[in-house]
Amino acid sequence: MALVEEPNPSREQVVRGLAFQAFAIHRVAVSQISPFVGLLFDRSRVGPLERVTTPPYDTISPREQRRFLDASPHNVIRLDLGEDRPGDDQVENKYMRASAELRRWREEGVLVETPRPAYYPYEMRFTLHGARRRVRGLICAVELEGWGGSILPHERIMPGPVEDRLRLIRAVRANLSSIHALFSGPCPPLSELLTRMSRTEPAAQAADEEGVEHRMWVADEDTGVRDWLAGQTLMIADGHHRYEMALKFRDEMRALHGTGPWDRVMMLLMDASTENPPVLPFHRILISGAPHVDGSRVRDLQEVLDEVADDRLEFGVVAREEGEIVHRVGKLEGEPPTVSALHRNILDGRDGDLRFTPNAVEAEEAVRQGLAAAAFFLPATTASRIRSVIDRGERLPQKSTYFWPKPRTGMVIRSLDSGVTPPPPRDRAS
C-alpha cells in the first residue's frame, strides 16, 4: 500500500492549523528551540537498534521490562527503567546504576557524540485501521518555561512519576527520551526539510514491537529552523511528568550553577496541521468497588469497541453481574472528550483505584481473572478536542490520551554535562 507524501499543506491541513491557533490566540508564544550534541548508539558495537531501544518508560509492563533487560547489556531500559533490587538504598539503587552504565557506555564508545550540535528529523511509518500512514517531526532542545505561556499541558500531573524522573535525572544528567509536543503549523520549510532528509540514509532506524518503522536523521547544517518555529505555541502530547520534572531540575541546578543546559529539554516537535497524529484511548481498569452503570448490554468486547464514540460520549464497561461477565455500552452527559465526562460522572475521586492500559483485551482480562472490579473502555479522540479542553481552562484526567505512535527511547540522548563540571551525582529525596 503506497504512502503519499505531502510536502505542501492542503487546504484541510491549513484549516486544522487555523483551528489549533484559534484556541491559543490570546496567548503570547515565546518558545525557543536550539540544536544539541546528541549521543547515538554505535551500531557496530550494539547491533540492530531494536535490541537497544524501547518505548517510553511509562508504557512498559514488568514483563516487557524483563524482555528488554534480556535483549542486550546495552539496552536503554538499563538507564530509563532499571530494576529495583533487594537492599537498594540511597547509595546503591537503580538510579545510581543507570548513572554508572551511561558513563561506562560513553567511555567505551557504545554511545558516541555527534560532531556538532544538530537537529534530528524523525519519522514514524505505521498501519492504522488498514491504512498506511506516516507522521514526522523534529527532535530539538526547547527552552523551559512555566506552564501556561507557550508550553501548554492537557493532562493532570501526579507527584509520584515526577519524583521518579527527578531522581533519575539527578543521577544520569541526561534527557533519555523525547517529550512529544504539537505546534499549530503549517510550517512549509520544516515539511520540506523532513521530505528532503527522508530521501537520504537515516542515521538511526528501528522497527518496534507494534510494527512501526522509526527513522531518524542528523541535520547539522544551518537550516534556519530556529526562525521557522520561533514563537510557536507547544501543546504537550506525551511527557507531562517529564516536563514538570525538567522544570524542577532546572530550578535546582540554577540555584547551584546558574544557567546551563538544564534550561532546555529534549522534545519531538510535530506540526499538528500537516501530520494530524492519531490519538488513541487509554482504557481504565478499576481495581475495586465497581459502580452501577446504566447501559445497553452487548455481546462481547468487539461490540463494545465498535459502539463507543467520542462525539456521542458513548463508553463501554465490563464487570461481573451476579457472577457473570457482562459487557455494556453507556452514554454520558457533558462535552467531549468522553474521558473527561467519564471521570466527572462516574470515576471522580477514584484515581487511587485506577490502572491504565491502551490494550482493551488486557483490561477485559483483568476483570475475567478477578484482578479488577470493572474495566471502562473509551473511544479515540482528536487533538482538536483535547485543545478544546485547554481552551476551557481545564485539564484532562491523567492518562487520558495515547498519542500513537510514540518516539523510540534511545534513538538519541541529550547529555546535560556539556560545558559544565557537574558535582558527583547523588540520589536524594525532594
Folded structure, characterized:
With about 425 residues, the protein is of the alpha+beta class. The chain has helices at about 10-25, 45, 60-70, 75-80, 95-110, 160-170, 190-200, 225-230, 240-255, 270-275, 300-305, 340-345, 360-370, 385-390; strands spanning about 35, 40, 110-115, 120-130, 130-145, 150, 175, 180-185, 205, 215, 235-240, 265-270, 280, 285, 295-300, 315-320, 325-330, 355, 375, 400-405, 415. The strands form 4 sheets. Strands 1, 4, 5, 6, 8, 9, 10, 11 and 12 form a 9-stranded mixed β-sheet that branches. Strands 15-17-16-19-14-18 form a 6-stranded antiparallel β-sheet, with helices on one face. A hairpin with a 5-residue loop joins strand 9 (about 205) and strand 10 (about 215). Helix 6 packs across helix 9. The termini are far apart.
Overall geometry comes to globular
Low-confidence sequence ranges: 1-30, 419-426
Residues in β-strands, percent: 15-25%
**Strand segment count:** 21
Helix content: 25-40%
Q: Alpha-carbon distance between the termini?
A: 52 Å
How many helix segments?
14
Mean pLDDT: 88
Structural class: alpha+beta
Q: Please compute the radius of gyration using only Cα atoms.
A: 22 Å
Main sheet characteristics: 9 strands, mixed
